[in-house]
């Protein structure tokens, strides 16, 4: 039903926003940690690497949730095909 699709679209839209915010925080952390290089004795993975990996993960999840939001928004429209995938 269209209202169920709208509900799903809202949920995935909220998730998309949350992941974009988390990615922005990790981006700042990544940039901050990139300034601090410990040199040759640095442990691996470096804190900057961990922040970069989290940033990339959050951006991936934001992209996936954005695509699902768009899909369910299309399905919620009154002129959507009945068997749309």
Q: Distance between termini?
A: 14 Å
Tell me the fraction of residues in β-strands, as a range: under 5%
Distinct helical segment count = 2
Helix content: over 70%
Rg, Cα atoms, Å: 19 Å
Structural category? mainly alpha
Low-confidence stretches: none
Mean pLDDT: 87
Number of strands: 0
Order of helix and strand elements from N to C terminus:
HH
Described by strand count, sense and barrel closure, the largest sheet is: none
* Gross morphology: rod-shaped
Observed structural traits:
single chain; 85 residues; mainly alpha; rod-shaped
Q: What's the arrangement of secondary structure elements?
A:
Layout (H helix, E strand, L loop, with lengths): L1 H34 L11 H30 L9
Helix pairs in contact: 1-2
Structure, explained:
- It is a single chain.
- The chain has 85 residues and is an all-alpha fold.
- Helix content is 75%, strand content 0%.
- It has helices at 2-35, 47-76.
- The longest helix is centred in the N-terminal third of the chain and has 34 residues, at 2-35.
């Amino acid at each position: 039903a269209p209202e169920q699709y709208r509900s799903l679209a809202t949920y995935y839209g909220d998730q998309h926003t949350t992941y974009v915010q988390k990615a922005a925080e990790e981006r700042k952390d990544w940039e901050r940690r990139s300034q601090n290089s410990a040199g040759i004795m640095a442990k691996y993975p470096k804190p900057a690497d961990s922040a970069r990996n989290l940033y990339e993960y959050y951006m991936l999840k934001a992209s996936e949730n954005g695509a699902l939001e768009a899909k369910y928004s299309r399905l919620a429209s009154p002129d959507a095909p009945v068997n749309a995938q």
